[in-house]
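Leucine rich repeat-like protein structure dump, as promised
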Amino acid sequence: VCLCEGLGNMTLFDKAQALKFPKLVEINFDHCSDLEELPGSICSLTSLERLSVTNCHLIQKLPDDLGRLRSLRLLRLSTCPSLSMLPPSICRLQQLKFLDISLCMSLKDLPMEFDQLPKLKMLGMNECSGLKMLPKALAKLRSLKRVICDEHTEQQWLAIKASAMPNLTVDVVKERFNLDWLDD
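structure tokens r here:
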């Protein structure tokens, strides 16, 4: 689903419709200009391995049942600046290997149960300026190999690396998106 309008009030899948797509493995929502909330019915697609929600500037909420997507390996939520929280059920995604929350500036914190993601290998979180403190549980992610962050969280990640994760690669990306020009 790309460059679309009209999804804001639409139910994508009910449970009966989800049964018609038992092997659906990937869904992409990109530049869906009026999508404010990802429909909870998407959580019925239990075969889903890759879910991308990118450049959806109005999306504020993810389904509380996101953890039902037990096959999910990749979750990309980049450039969703209004997304204010990740549901705690995200920590039940036992197969998740890649999570990208880059440019989600309204995220205030990450779920405390992040250490329950046993296969997470890569976390992209550059330009998440709303995140002030990282949960201590991140230090327990033994499979985490690479973090992409910015200057705001660099020192916290370096401290985690020094104390508990010596093999972690921390890549710092320079800020490339800001709205400072609006102040002029």
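The first helix runs from residue 15 to 18.
lmk if u need the other ones
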